Amino acid sequence: METKIIQLHLDGKELSEKDKTSLKKAGHVLREGGLVAFPTETVYGLGGNALNGESSRRIYAAKGRPSDNPLIVHICRFEDIYSITKIVPEGARKLAQAFWPGPLTMILPKSDKVPYETTGGLETVAVRMPSHPAAREMIACAGGYVAAPSANASGRPSPTTALHVAEDMLGKIDMIVDGGPVGIGLESTIVDLTVSPPQILRPGYITKAMLEEVLGCVEEDPAPGEQKSGQSPRAPGMKYRHYAPRGELIIVEGAKKKVIDFINARAAQDMAEGKRIGVIGTKEAVSLYRADVVKSVGSRENEEEIAACLYAVLREFDRDKVSRIYSESFEAQGLGQAIMNRLLKAAGYRVEKAAGDASETETQGGQGEI
Ligand code: TXA
Ligand code: MG
Fold first, then answer.
1. Residue-wise over 5-14: b if at least 16 C-beta within 10 A, else e?
2. CA 356 vs CA 31, 125, 262: distances in Å
3. Helices 335-346/303-320 angle, 10° precision
4. pLDDT, tens digit, 9 for 90 and up, residues 255-291
5. Which end of the chain has fewer CB within 10 Å, C or N?
């Protein structure tokens, strides 16, 4: 299949008339049952008509994704939530008012209009109203309901540029809408509103504290290490190995200087054995690492920058063909929680502690632990 690539010329945040014409074409492809990758404010999505079971089957096939892993239905007007859900609780209305359009997905009981192919056989549906102007225009042109997982091949880091999408999807889908690099860089926060209190199934840009401000009490789905045996995560997608770079990824925790020494010692040992070694560090520390490939993921002072760069850096390491990557660790608070959640998954939860304790180092404030 030939994949058509359409370039948008977003003028600041506004769509030009030419962009609108392009998005109309994308909407037409979706109405016909085709697949279109498109930018959102979080990551690129791989869209299909959410109300057409056959389109959803095609999405699973293009991604190589297990079909029990449900898709998020993207809408562009709040009122459209009523036709794809059975109940919209007060909490959902409040969250929509506070955070939609934006990087928040809500799980609600599905209506009969949504095929089981889209929900992976579940009685619930994930709904999100993105804020990206191109996404909203395209959804409107497609008839209002676009099912879209992240537009990566299953198991690879989510795409934050159209080039990443092309790496995974060229020849497998009808169209890629290139709207430039996305803003946030990590997937939306997912909240399950079918349970009380509501539960966060995937951390994201909308943090627990932000949700609590609107809802009062919110719980978190336990991290895989903390789950009771036999219990599986409530977002089916969270059980699969994700975002994995081709090289083995190891996260190193501890005080700043200890982490640098630990990584350098391990890298030297690995390289002496003939391995090609990579390091993911923060801007403040990258000059101190000694390895084959050292990449900065942004400043430790700027979590938004780290979120925006993380997936691109993981993909770059695949091109650099390293066999092992060591990464600094991040504080798991606020947006840092989403960053660590994705990094841990990419590492298959492999974490090592650099010996020694923080009090022995010369770092100050909260910056000592990495
Ligand atoms: O930011 C995002 O959410 C991006 C953009 C494209 O909107 N989309 C995205 O979709 O990340 P995906 O398919 O890569 O991740 C959706 C996650 C999966 O872990 C899936 O299992 C979970 O949402 N999910 C979807 N429907 C669900 C449901 N009814 N109940 C529980 N989890 C659900
Ligand atoms: Mg995904």
1. ebebeeeeee
2. 59, 47, 10
3. 20
4. 999 999 999 999 999 999 999 999 999 999 999 999 9
5. N
C-alpha 270 to ligand 2 mean position (Å): 32
Contacts of 194-200 with C-beta under 8 Å, sequence gap 24+, read: 194/107, 194/108, 194/109, 194/124, 198/91, 199/234
Q: How far is CA 341 from CA 59, 222, 348, in A?
A: 25, 12, 11
DSSP of 265-314: HHHHHHHHTT--EEEEE-TTTGGG--SSEEEE---TT-HHHHHHHHHHHH
Q: Is the CB of 149 under 6 A from ligand 1?
A: yes
Question: What's the token pair of residue 338?
Answer: 């989403």
Minimal-distance CA residue to ligand 1 atom 7: 45
Ligand 2 centroid to residue 311 C-alpha, Å: 12
- The CA distance from 225 to 35, in Å, is 36
Gap from CA of 158 to ligand 2 centroid (Å):
6
* Six-digit token string for 303: 């979590």
Q: Which residues make beta-bridge pairs with 49?
A: 146
- Does ligand 1 have an atom closer than 6 angstroms to the CB of 104? no
State both tokens at 323: 């066999």
Instruction: Please report, for residues 31, 41, 183, 186, the alpha-carbon distance to residue 305 in angstroms, rounded to integers and kept in the order given.
Output: 36, 14, 9, 11
Spatial separation of the C-alpha atoms in residues 285 and 307, rounded to whole Å? 17
148 CA closest ligand 1 atom index = 6
What pTM was estimated for this model as a whole? 0.93
- 145-199 pLDDT, tens digit per residue, is 999 999 999 988 999 999 999 999 999 999 999 999 999 999 999 999 999 999 9
Return mean pLDDT, the chain: 92
Amino acid at 156: R
